[in-house]
Write a structure and sequence with these properties.
elongated, TIM Barrel, 2 domains, single chain, 246 residues, 9 helices, Membrane-bound Lytic Murein Transglycosylase D, Chain A, alpha/beta, seven-stranded mixed β-sheet
């Protein structure tokens, strides 16, 4: 990293060209705001060639429903590593429930752009709500767990998915360990067949945080059981209201 002092008539583009460094890198490192006006005498950090070569790759993921506009998906896929298609459900006996709309076109479009399609598994009830009753029935029934995993395996192969993302919310505290065991069992089977497993986790600020989003999940255990976890920090970025019942 070196320091450059802005001279008269300098622009971000001219400085980047002079040092053969991408404009976006200078903007990011110096946290410049659009329209990137510079002041004479301003000091800028410029990455060196060696530092440019040492830049690490990132894995990017996007969730999408099958009713997404095709143009929006096509414009987004070049920036993604994984496309998590939302979502597949299941019954308490381990039968897999496909989305109402066809997802094949999304998988094929993603494959054409070198993006992995990920099957998102959710415990939705008939009204489209996360059901901890359904989770309880499945994770505590060895036959149901095994059936669901085998059904997932078949669907991944038939559809062309590259993995499974487990997005379970509102898990009961009493099902914490059973859920972790299910994820471990799922991951073992997926890995043996060339697929990967991820788990979506609600973001929390302490190990003992109370609430249905947290108490039913062993964060450390799930991190060890799955190939990767996704912390849904976007939940900190919007406001929502809970209905209260008395």
């Amino acid at each position: 990293m070196m320091i450059y002092v802005v001279q008269p008539n300098d622009t971000i583009d001219s400085i980047a060209e002079s040092y053969q460094v991408p404009v976006d890198n200078i903007i990011y490192i110096n946290q410049l705001a659009y329209p990137y006006a510079l002041a004479i005498g301003q000091a800028l950090l410029i990455p060196t060639a060696d530092e440019e070569q040492e830049r690490r790759a990132v894995i990017t993921n996007g969730y999408a429903y099958p009713f997404i506009n095709q143009g929006v998906l096509e414009s987004t896929l070049p920036y993604l590593t994984n496309l998590s298609i939302f979502s597949y459900g299941f019954t308490g006996q381990g039968d897999l429930i496909a989305p109402t709309l066809n997802d094949t076109w999304m998988i094929e479009l993603a494959a054409g752009m070198g993006v992995n399609s990920i099957l998102t598994l959710t415990p939705m009830d008939a009204e489209g709500r996360f059901s901890n009753v359904l989770i309880h029935q499945m994770v505590n029934n060895a036959e149901a767990r095994s059936a669901l995993i085998q059904n997932l395996l078949v669907t991944l192969g038939e559809k062309g998915y590259q993995g499974v993302d487990v997005d379970f919310e509102y898990i009961l505290a009493e099902d914490r360990d059973a859920f972790t065991s299910f994820v471990a069992e799922l991951t073992e089977t997926m890995n043996a067949n060339g697929y990967e497993t991820s788990v979506a986790l609600a973001p929390k600020t302490s190990a003992n945080q109370r609430g249905l989003l947290y108490e039913g999940k062993d964060y450390g255990g799930l991190g060890a059981a799955a190939n990767s976890v996704l912390l849904m920090t976007y939940e900190w970025g919007y406001t929502y209201h809970h209905a209260s019942h008395r």
